[in-house]
Amino acid sequence: MKKYLSTFRMRWKMETQYRGAAIGGIVCQMVFGLILISVYRALYQGNPQSMPLSAIVTYVWLQQAFFRMLLSSDNDLMDKIRTGGIAYEMCRPVNLYGYYYARIMAMKLTGSLLRAIPMLIVASLLPEGWGIGAPTSLPALLLSLLGLTMGLFCMCALENITMGITMRTIDFKGFQALLNLLMATFSGNILPLTLFPDSWQPIVKLLPYAQLLDAPIRIYTGETPVAQAGEVFLIQGAWLCIFVALGLFLWHRNTKKMIVQGG
Amino acid sequence: MHYIEVENLNKSFTVRKKREKGRLTREKTVIHALQDVSFHIDEEELTGYIGPNGAGKSTSVKILSGILTPDSGKATVGGLTPWTERKKHVENIGVVFGQRMQLWWDVPILDSYRLLKDIYKIDKNDFENRLEELTDALDLKELLATPLRLMSLGQRMRAELCGSLLHSPKLLFLDEPTIGLDAVSKLKLREFLQKENKEKGTTILLTTHDMEDIAALCNRVMVLGHGKKLFDGQLPDLLSRYDTQRTIHVRYDTAPDFSSLPESCTLQKEGDNYIITYAPAELPTAEIIARLQQAGRMQEMTAQSQNIDHLIARMYREMDL
Lengths: 263, 321
What we know:
- The structure holds two protein chains of two kinds.
- Chain A is an all-alpha fold.
- Chain A is built from 13 helices and no strands.
- Chain A has one domain (2-257).
- Chain A is globular, with a radius of gyration of 19 Å.
- By secondary structure, chain B is an alpha/beta fold.
- Chain B has three domains: 1-91 and 199-243 and 309-321, P-loop containing nucleotide triphosphate hydrolases (Rossmann fold), CATH 3.40.50; 93-168, no CATH class; 244-305, Alpha-Beta Plaits.
- Chain B is built from ten helices and 13 strands.
- In chain B, helix 4 (124-138) runs antiparallel to helix 5 (153-165).
- Chain B is globular, with a radius of gyration of 25 Å.
- The chains are: A mainly alpha, B alpha/beta.
- The interface between A and B is medium-sized, with 30 and 32 residues.
């Protein structure tokens, strides 16, 4: 277990190595958030929606704060696969699936925590209607944190599958562009999923991309009542099992058929 | 039972070429990287592994380090089959791929070493001692806080080697470790490897194109060509097969007359120098020198044995590689 934790520490060091990039990321995400909120405010002035504006604003801030969890691709790992550097990883006494899982998780977690904490502090200081709202209750907050954790586990497992596919296709750009499009649409990053037509709701709520941020945010804002949180966890758990099983299978097959590129 | 046993190992790769215009299918070529290769290596041996580019050296190293799965054949290292018992096997081995990086690019190398310590579950005290020892020998003390990206090629190679040896592996695979190193770094590296082998009893399998590496380090060499093992034995034995010629460079005060030189030797003129190549087995050196003295008043003379690279090039040519 310690070796997987160590990869976390390493990633944290790498993230903090480039502080300028981290600060730049925060500023970028803040501006993005403010623009989106302006757009929704304008929209609401013309045509108020069923969901209160404050809930949408909160949704946007939480999405922006944890954006790095969504953003797929550890370019380091992709490059390793492309150039054959993965040969070294194969010489380590680790379970490769677990090792890559830990590295993906580390990237998502360190990257987003580094950005989310300062962003959420700033967002909570903004005036009413612009800033993030408080959670509906303490259980809602705790359950949404649990939901976020589960969602993160799901996302990492999904990305590890991408990694496994990359090992076969070698170049990841085409596949990833497709995945990023799906992700941006169905995670609620472009348009909050709560604003999708009602008839779409049962489906979009079930999709894997909704599990990471949308599901926990809905618990946080009270859209999903605390009593129904169990259902959310059930969906997340089901996806997690499917993704991990598929990922393990893919990695297992890959290591048997591996070729190392570049001599 | 030998430490490393390899029996009839086969591995082939399919290479697909770009589709030609007007054809629907891509052309496929199968490259037999290894064909029925067998050998064994005992513990504490330092073996050199040579052959031209694409001979299958790296492929065999990758199979033995558990990265690739062969098509057929058997191989065990210390009783373990590398590709089926990979996790257990790799605990005991260290690998250096001269053209790849294992350390993290952006962080100080000490951080990379600490991560390796946890990955290999090295005890804290053992780690400190080993690190002390390695940084001493490889001259890395001042570089520990430097990120890899700021290092020169030579420093990086030393840092990589240190990373591969932290867990005191019983077996070390070196795939072109001296690539791009300057003379001083090369000598240091060789000295270090020799010490590791002698004092720690580390078994080393060295792949290289630098024949000086082999000459300085290895008692035993294996030659691989087109995926087949062509030679396995002592380096001097290998060389003596091809080292059949000597050259003499001479310069004369006045224009010499070489009419008395036997026809079996070749004569070249290079500026004021004459280069005579002959086979001592057929024509004794004393004889040649006597004839050269007859040719005119000698100003200067040097005799040379053939450069090891030339010998190997000749060997590759004769083996049709």
